[in-house]
Design a protein that fits this description.
The complex is a heterodimer of chains A (166) and B (567). Chain A is mainly α. Helices cover 58% and strands 0% of the residues of chain A. Chain A is globular, with a radius of gyration of 16 Å. Chain B is of the alpha+beta class and 567 residues long. In chain B, strands 1, 2, 6, 7, 8, 9 and 23 form a 7-stranded mixed sheet that branches. Chain B is globular, with a radius of gyration of 23 Å. Classes of the chains: A mainly alpha (166), B alpha+beta (567). Chains A and B meet through α7 and α8 of A and α2, α10, β17 and α11 of B.
Chain lengths: 166, 567
């Protein structure tokens, strides 16, 4: 089973012209352009006023950015996160972040019907959950709000450094 | 470093490497243990789910070091590098190896596991053979390992419980969640006898190691109290205290180099931080790198004396790789409708379920016939918070998000707890499960990567399904909801053995009964590679016991001067 099929598929259909090796700097520049798009998707997935803390209040986008650019993170998935956001904006004519809730829901559900889009949304969900329910040392799950919401807490001892100092 | 000649150079610091190092250093011999990973201090073993369970922090980056896995897809063999699949076959590359991260539910193999072919006869398509040693040969070392590692438990007589030379375990069982009463009550109603699980976790302090503090996050994590009976805590620490052990971290062995046809002269190593190569010399060499990597090292060490790989005159090197067959299943115990147990007691974090079922270790079924079965371990679903939150978040093929997601997750965490069973049964050795070296793929050190062809035998699935159905009945009796089980031919990559079978016939085995290479007297393979069949329990206790047995033999050889000093 090849996890990268969805990324390769993206390149074949022209979604990902930059699949070949890129520098981190270039990827950071590309990320800066779609950071708001991803933050908007996260806020739609984890909105305010539910039984869980919101993506906005937990700064999940900052966690996502630091995570995907960390040396321990899979470089192909980092590119996929960026590519997928660019593709969403391409589909929506660059206006996704300006939509109201109803239109965002419609756009994301439409994106989800495509296996590429479905995989991308799943990845964003995973990164959002990692932010909300990972140890607060990673900068999200502020005040252990995520853990308090699910009445489950990380074990002891807690980490003193991120990624065991790596 | 390169000029010193050690009595023994051990490649790998996991369960078997630690056991050999312990025995040899206690006997006064100078030993070097070469570990490709780093030393993680005990206090650094936090319960950081992101670091330990969701990133490659204690295993190599798959883009730099990987395996190629060959599976049968639609009738054809399809090879996929693990950097592509994400299916890592590394299992903890730090000092102590994967023993740092085990759950510690350990069992001895049954005496009949040592004579499976004699007991049940040949199975078509499977290369089942009897072991060259018996349970009686290994029993003293099971007992020794129980004491050194610190295995807690309580012995209860059972027809399929192996005989013991001591009446009970050195430590009482670890604390148990009240769900045990419900499990036992349900089993009793079905005529099933649950036993207390022997666990390599201290229930009491022992020699510089603190008793378990019930962190709620045991398996997949290192232990910050030293309670878990890892190689590093139970064996390497006391070995280091002798002053006879040199532990070299970040040291990867690329190949073993022969000094002559009958002797390994040195190990060619690379410092994984600097990339600088150096050599390590020893009177003898003990390979303990975990089964698939040990075979790979010997294959990669081919030279003019051994063009097909070291110790491979039989052609058996890498063959008959085995995993643990079986599967798992679980059900949800909901607050509403919970029987014979308060919800508060069920939700008590940290305590173990600690129950094993051996009733189906050997099966004599009026409909299915007589065949070798397996064991079952009971536990709660792993309490990792992120992974639990990410489960079952699809409905009608679509991701759930927004308010619906919040309600679903909140309910799952606060209104129910899932109980789980894991089945361990024999993974029958076959011609279609082996390790070789890949002709094209190389790791970052320039060495060919291990290529693992993996295929299970249909009997493995049959046994797993038979037992899973029985376990689902127990969950039903407990009142669990949403019960499911999964038995597949995909192996648990952390339960790997075989590839360097031991046996008395040099034409059919790589190692002799003391796990010494038939071809090269100063070469031993001490990890699970030696196992011709795997039994129906986790391998770890057997690995510890056998490595202690092998080490005793090595000490005997060294004492007698049977290993020549280098000129």
């Amino acid at each position: 089973m090849r996890r990268r099929n969805f990324m390769i598929l993206g390149s074949i259909i022209g979604i990902s012209p930059y699949l070949s090796a890129q520098s981190i700097t270039l990827e950071q520049k590309r990320f800066a352009k779609i950071k708001k798009t991803i933050a908007t998707v996260q806020a739609h997935m984890l909105p305010d006023h539910t039984a869980l803390p919101s993506a906005r209040s937990m700064h999940t986008i900052d966690f996502l950015e630091e995570t995907i650019f960390h040396s321990t993170y899979d470089r192909d998935i980092r590119r996929f996160v960026i590519d997928g956001a660019e593709e969403l904006e391409r589909r929506e004519g660059g206006k996704f972040t300006t939509y109201d809730t109803t239109r965002k829901e419609k756009a994301l559900r439409a994106y989800e019907t495509d296996s590429y889009g479905s995989n991308w949304l799943s990845r964003i969900m995973t990164l959002s959950m990692e932010a909300m329910l990972g140890d607060p040392i990673y900068g999200s799950n502020i005040g252990e709000s995520g853990w308090k919401a699910v009445e489950s807490f990380g074990g002891l001892p807690r980490p003193r450094t991120r990624y065991m100092g790596r | 470093m390169s000029n010193e000649i050690y009595d023994a150079v051990i490649i790998g610091s996991g369960a078997s490497g630690g056991a050999v190092a312990y025995t040899l250093t206690k006997a006064g011999y100078r030993v070097a243990v070469l570990e490709k990973g780093r030393l993680v201090p005990r206090e650094a073993f936090s319960k950081d789910e992101i670091a330990y369970c969701r990133r490659d922090i204690v295993t190599p980056n798959l883009f730099e070091e990987y395996h190629v896995i060959e599976e049968k897809v639609n009738g054809r063999w399809e090879a996929t590098p693990t950097y592509d699949s994400g299916w890592s076959f590394w299992n903890g590359n730090i000092v102590g190896g994967s023993s740092n991260f085990m759950s510690g539910m350990l069992h001895r193999m049954h005496p009949d596991d040592f004579r499976l072919k004699s007991k049940y006869g040949a199975i078509e398509g499977a290369n089942v053979v009897d072991w060259p040693i018996s349970y009686e040969d290994l029993e003293p070392y099971y007992t020794l390992a129980e004491d050194l590692v610190g295995i807690s438990g309580h012995h209860l007589p059972h027809p399929f419980e192996p005989p013991r030379s001591t009446p009970d375990f050195p430590q009482p069982p670890t604390r148990e969640n009240a769900v045990v009463t419900l499990l036992e009550r349900s089993c009793k109603k079905l005529g099933i006898t649950p036993l207390v699980t022997p666990r390599a976790v201290l229930s009491q302090d022992k020699e510089g190691r603190d008793a378990c503090y019930y962190s709620n996050f045991c398996g997949s994590y290192g232990c910050s109290s030293g309670a878990k009976g890892s190689s590093r805590e139970a064996l390497l620490r006391p070995a280091l205290a002798t002053g006879k052990l040199t532990l070299l971290t970040n040291t990867h062995v690329k190949r073993l180099v022969t000094a002559s046809k009958n002797r390994i002269g040195h190990a060619l190593c690379v410092d994984t931080i600097t990339g600088k190569e150096h050599t390590m010399h020893g009177r003898l060499f003990v390979v303990a790198a975990q089964a698939h990597e040990s075979a790979r090292l010997l294959l990669n060490s081919a030279d003019t004396h051994y063009p097909n790989g070291l110790a491979n005159s039989s052609g058996e090197l890498g063959k008959n790789l085995i995993f643990s067959g079986g599967g798992s299943g679980q059900g949800e115990l909901h607050k509403e409708g919970l029987k014979h147990l308060s919800f508060e007691a069920l939700m008590q974090p940290g305590y173990f379920v600690n129950r094993t079922i051996l009733d189906w270790y050997f099966i004599d079924d009026w409909l299915e016939g007589k065949f070798k079965g397996g064991s079952v371990e009971w536990m709660f679903e792993h309490q990792n918070i992120i992974s639990r939150a990410l489960k079952h978040n699809y409905e009608g093929g679509r991701l759930v998000w927004g308010e619906a997601l919040a309600e679903r997750i909140h309910k799952r965490f606060t209104q129910q707890k899932s109980i789980r069973f894991e089945i361990f049964n024999d993974w029958l050795p076959t011609d279609d499960c082996f390790v070789s070296i890949d002709p094209t793929h190389k790791d970052k050190y320039g060495m060919p990567v291990g290529k693992l062809r993996i295929n299970g035998h249909p009997q493995d699935i049959k046994v797993g399904n038979y037992i899973a159905k029985k376990c689902e009945k127990i969950l039903e009796e407990m009142g669990a909801k949403h019960i499911y089980s999964s038995v597949s031919a995909a192996p648990a990559q952390n339960l790997v053995a075989g590839g360097c079978r031991f046996g008395d016939d040099p034409k059919r085995s790589v190692l002799n009964r003391y796990c010494q290479a038939h071809d090269i007297p100063n070469l031993f393979v001490a990890d699970a590679s030696f196992m011709p069949t795997g039994g129906s329990v986790a391998y770890t206790w057997t690995i510890y016991a056998n490595a202690l047995r092998v080490a005793d033999h090595i000490v005997g050889m060294l004492n007698k001067g049977n290993i020549r000093p280098l000129a």
